[in-house]
Amino acid sequence: MTDLEQILDNDPTGAEVKKLKETLFQAQNSVKRKLDQGCNPQQYQLLTKQHEAYIAAQAVLEQYVSQQS
To answer: Is the pTM of the predicted complex or chain greater than 0.85?
Structure first.
């Protein structure tokens, strides 16, 4: 079991889940803003992968939480 799993499993109020969702959302938006400002092709590729990773992390978090319910 990972530290994150322990935190989520011991979160009866959902406060930690909410905090994690907000952190991921803010990070995703930050990357999106950088993409929207424009950048060179290398940066674009890196930022796009980061953006996709944040979306995937949110999906994993949602799936984990729904399985615990």
So the answer is: yes
The alpha carbon of 61 is separated from its chain's Cα centroid by a whole number of angstroms, namely 8
Question: Max alpha carbon distance in the chain (Å)?
Answer: 45
Task: Please tell me whether residue 41 adopts helix, strand or coil conformation.
Answer: helix
Task: Look up residue 67 and give its DSSP letter.
Answer: H
Q: What does the block give as tokens for 41?
A: 């092709």
Query: Could you state, in order of their start, the residue ranges of all structural domains in the chain?
Result: 16-68
Per residue of the chain (69 residues), give pLDDT as tens.
Answer: 689 999 999 999 999 999 999 999 999 999 999 999 999 999 999 999 999 999 999 999 999 999 987
